[in-house]
Prior knowledge:
This protein has helices spanning about 10-25, 45-55, 60-65, 75-85, 145-150, 155-165, 170-175, 180-195, 200-205, and strands at about 30-35, 40-45, 95-100, 105-115, 125-130. By secondary structure, the protein is α+β, with helices and mostly antiparallel strands. It folds into two domains: about 10-130, Beta-Lactamase (2-Layer Sandwich), CATH 3.30.450; about 135-205, Winged helix-like DNA-binding domain superfamily/Winged helix DNA-binding domain (Arc Repressor Mutant, subunit A, Orthogonal Bundle), CATH 1.10.10.10.
Amino acid sequence: MSRHPAPLTAEEAAQRLTHYEIMLEEVPVGLLLLDWDLKPLWFNFEAARACAVWNYGERKAAALRVRNEFELPPILASTCQTMHDAHVPHELPAHPEVVSDHTRGLHARIKLHATGRPDQPLAFHIQLDYRRPRGDRHRPLSPGAVALLARLTEREREVAMRVREGLRTNEIATELRRSPLTIKTQLASIFTKLSVRGRTRVAALLNR
């Protein structure tokens, strides 16, 4: 019995790639892939949102179609260019570069990666985290956000408000003294009632 799976056909590889992209779209961290010339090859919605906030600020970013209007923030472009210029052939930095804007809760972790094939150039793998500063949790809600919250139960509103602040599922569970499974169930109900696909959209709507 063979221990190694059979090589994938081109169609199977394409199907698997599609599944990978769908899975990565749902993670609560921004993922951005740049080629060696700093051109975006792929990014998920969370990365597009974080970059939009970095470029335009929270209020303007909330009104944008961030995926269609993606632009690499200058500070990230500058950091990647510095890494590009300092690169020594056949060597990769031991540690990633970290760029942060603590005032707005924005963080980027940038690493250089090789494909393992000498004929292919390096690429930049960037993880982006956008978490609203905890001290901003008492910022007044807009009339539109209040109207959206009115569709939810009291317990769902408690969860939605913490999604607005950028808390993760486990953090919400700890703060509200509920199980993570309960929080996930309430999140699913919130998504249905607000007609959204994920928590990033909930946060964007409530922060307008």
